[in-house]
Design brief:
The protein is of the alpha/beta class. Helix content is 33%, strand content 19%. It has 17 helices and 17 strands. The protein has helices at 6-9, 128-136, 141-157, 173-186, 209-216, 218-221, 244-257, 275-280, 298-307, 315-320, 328-333, 345-348, 353-368, 376-382, 385-390, 424-431, 458-476, and strands spanning 49-58, 66-75, 78-83, 91-94, 99-102, 104-105, 160-167, 189-194, 227-233, 261-265, 288-292, 311-313, 338-340, 408-411, 437-442, 445-449, 452-453. The strands form 2 sheets. Strands 1, 2, 3, 4, 5, 14, 15, 16 and 17 form a 9-stranded mixed β-sheet that branches. Strands 6-7-8-9-10-11-12-13 form an 8-stranded parallel β-sheet. The longest helix has 19 residues, at 458-476. The two termini are 25 Å apart. The structure holds zinc ion. Zinc ion (ZN) binds at residues 1, 108, 110, 166, 264, 291, 343. Zinc ion is lined by residues 1, 108, 110, 166, 264, 291, 343.
């Protein structure tokens, strides 16, 4: 969320009594993940060779389309073949009755603060921004690890195979490394965007040591290239304007390091105009992702298009906090690369990206007062190939296309909430919950199978998050 708008949106009370309630997992303990103090290398399944047969393939590839009774052959993490008559190879996985599609692509998520799931309640002084700042300042690297790992595990469990970890509580290099290690431990594909510590005054420059250290050591942190590095930037405004001598060197340093930049802008209609100053300052580009852009005028959308900046919107939090409706159709009409994001579980509660994609479609239809403004297929594209394009990854993920990396999911529509199968695109968008996601594969590694997480211990993930939260609450001395 954009801190600029905190004065307008400081609402909500802590529902601390509910924080101990964690999601329940039914799968057995199958393997151990890397420890919080580990190197970032995780004990993940091997990339094998297998062929999923007889499935309904929703490829999200413009040329291939949907293929009923299709097969997909995966070898060494790559999609080798997709179609009706695939010779295949390796283990045969029966996909009969399943809908197989690319894993969802998430584009902006403060995963570290998942410890504070659903804490934003009903009183202004206990709303999202003041509380995250207060609790965030008490977090250790292990707390960051516990929060981000919980988020990444939830992502895998609900069919999201790529996340953009927007880490704006980097209190030291160890905090940033903990975020990266948590992503690596779960085996998810990701970008880690290294930010600043919560509570840092706008008059104080962000210490560049963590970002520079990560950039220098990235090879050993990237989980064999599955995770990339970016910079989460405060921008020109937060609670108020930030001076150029503060923000410009931060921006320039990211460009010097060659890492992409991401920044919150214009969350609400009454927010200060932030897009035009960025444009005029030469602070946009293909490597500068803009978050929210809810108040962008048509002229500002033209500026974004001209500069080449991708955009991310998060209807789940934008509607929840009362910013306003996202401008999804308007942004797409300009040809601007757009992705959908979770933003923060503190506001969304659960972080099932299918549910947020449904909100994206529904909010467009509500604005247009039409049942037909946005199709289910368009919403699913935003969550797959569109999101991948916005992150600069559409050449390697986002569709079931031979030659791309094998990030895919199989959905079983046999449960009470999904039966019976009518139109696959509408059904997947409107009904898929984590319990329907049977299989999740990232880079050819099977991380969920038969509805059970295969490469991490959910009980340990939840227990560690509970312990971390208890410690933060104790140190924060808040209740
Ligand atoms: Zn945000």
């Amino acid at each position: 969320m954009c801190e600029l708008c905190r004065r307008h949106f400081m609402r909500g009370a802590l529902a601390l009594g509910t924080l101990g309630l964690a999601q329940k997992f039914s799968s057995p303990l199958l393997a151990q993940t890397g420890p919080a103090t580990g190197s970032g290398g995780a004990k993940l399944p091997d990339r094998g060779e297998f062929t999923i047969t007889g499935a309904y393939l929703m490829t999200m590839d413009g040329a291939l389309g949907d293929i009923a009774g299709g097969s997909i052959h995966v070898k060494n993490g790559e999609i080798v073949a997709v179609g009706k008559d695939v010779a295949g190879g390796g283990e045969k996985i029966d996909g009969a009755g399943m809908i197989v599609m690319p894993g969802l692509v998430e584009t902006h998520w403060h995963m570290w603060n998942t410890l504070y799931r659903s804490f934003a309640g009903d009183k202004p002084e206990e709303g999202y921004f003041p509380t995250v700042a207060r609790f965030g300042q008490q977090m250790t690297p292990d707390d960051i690890f516990a929060g981000t790992r919980l988020a990444a595990a939830e992502a895998i469990n609900s069919g999201t195979t790529y996340v953009h970890s927007w880490c704006h509580n980097v209190r030291s290099t160890a905090h940033a490394e903990a975020d990266v290690r948590a992503l690596a431990a779960v085996g998810i594909r990701a970008r880690h965007s290294c930010g600043w510590p919560q509570g840092l005054p706008d008059t104080q420059a962000v210490d560049q040591t963590p970002l520079e250290t990560l950039a220098r050591n990235w090879k050993s942190l990237s989980n064999d290239g599955l995770i990339t590095l970016g910079m989460a930037w405060r921008g020109q405004f937060r609670a108020g304007p930030i001076k150029p001598e503060i923000y410009q060197p931060e921006f320039d340093n990211a460009r010097k390091l060659g890492v992409p930049i991401t920044v919150h802008v214009a969350s609400a209609r009454k927010a200060v105009n932030q897009i035009e100053p960025l444009y005029k300052g030469g602070l946009m580009g293909k490597d500068v992702q803009l978050i929210h852009t809810l108040s962008a005028s048509p002229t500002e959308l033209d500026m974004i298009k001209e500069a080449g900046s991708p955009v991310s919107v998060s209807p789940g939090t934008e509607l929840r906090i009362g910013y306003c409706y996202p401008q999804i159709s308007e942004t797409l009409a300009k040809g601007i690369p757009l992705g959908i994001s979770i933003d923060t579980s503190a506001l969304t509660g659960s972080s099932n990206l299918f549910a947020v994609l449904k909100l994206a479609r529904d909010s467009e239809n509500a604005k247009a007062e039409s049942e037909f403004k946005m199709t289910a297929r368009q919403a699913l594209e935003l969550g797959t190939i569109g999101g991948a394009r916005s992150m600069g990854l559409d050449a390697s993920i986002g569709s079931l296309t031979p030659g791309k990396r094998a990030d895919l999911i199989a959905i079983s529509p046999n449960a009470l909430n999904m039966a019976v199968v009518t139109d696959p695109a509408h059904l997947v968008l409107e009904a898929t919950g984590p319990e329907n996601v049977d299989t999740v594969i990232v880079d050819g590694r099977i991380l969920k199978r038969g509805g059970k997480l295969a490469a991490l211990n959910p009980s340990e993930v939840v227990a560690d998050a509970r312990t971390a939260l208890a410690g933060v609450r104790e140190r924060t001395k808040w209740r």
